[in-house]
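User: Run a structure prediction on this.
Assistant: Running it now.
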Amino acid sequence: MRNAALRIWKNRKYKYREITLIPLYKLDKLPRTQRLRKIAKFFSFAENRLCMAVDKGIKIFSAAELVFFKEAAMLLEKDDLFNDDERKAFKEAALDFEQAVSANNAESFSITGKSLPKESLLSKKLNEHDLRANFHRALNSIRHILLAQTGRDQADWDFICGDGRLDPQKRQIFEGMHVYMEDIRSPFNVGAMFRTAESFGVEKIILSPLCADPRHKRAERTAMGCIDIITWERNDLFSLEDSSEILNRGFQSKLNCSLPIFALETGGVPLNEFPFPRRGILITGSEELGVSPRALAAADASLGRVTIPSYGTKASLNVSVAFGIAVQTWAQKNFEKC
């Protein structure tokens, strides 16, 4: 029996490495946990490749690989240790894979047969929105079920997306709309804030020296390509030796500009009453300690603080969530002024 090679698209240049698929009869003989982990790995590779293949006409899956997905889903459906909802998801996925096989005119091919067919394309058929969406959702559902079943917690960086190639020419930017991220520790939060900032037209992001690295793999995963198209830099705007100068002269001395500043913090003007400037710098502080005293003093000497009203007992939000609410409101007011 011959094996099929699963090509994994690794980066924007479409370089790949080959992973050999294990025939299903061999998978079926493995201990259950090992079998599920291997199938999850194959489906993760497949979903990565599907997401990375953004160009029309690129060779994505062979006919044998399409049939493998279908037969793997059917194998999983027979496992009675999964609950009814999970087995139903496997059955629906098998039907979606069967549609892809039919669209590829490869109904008779099987990864477990004595020979493998010549490689063919899902190509134009797969590029049709509904077929591709169903195919992708089937891969995604199986992958996440298997990750949960094998005891692996799913985090943000387990979510597979495309390679994130975004067109900066399509951005609508609000000139002078800047953000200062002060000591944001979590790469997830940094990535989420980059994505939010890009979505709402922020022109520039300034990171404090101790802010998490936007190039961290978890930040890049969460940002989904936005780090590459939004302007950003590191700059210590509120160092101890410069704090008095900032208070006296504003940001002219540090940024060579006359932008007003304001902080997203408790104890300020409610969000719907705050006089958002057309141009300015919004300061967001660390997850644990909030905005530093020096940064708050500088903000209070300028536009002050903006606060998001809350009504629960916790009375606080994740920094990236709070940032999103504030930036959307700021962007909306800027849009209304255009």
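The CA atoms of residues 178 and 281 lie 5 Å apart.
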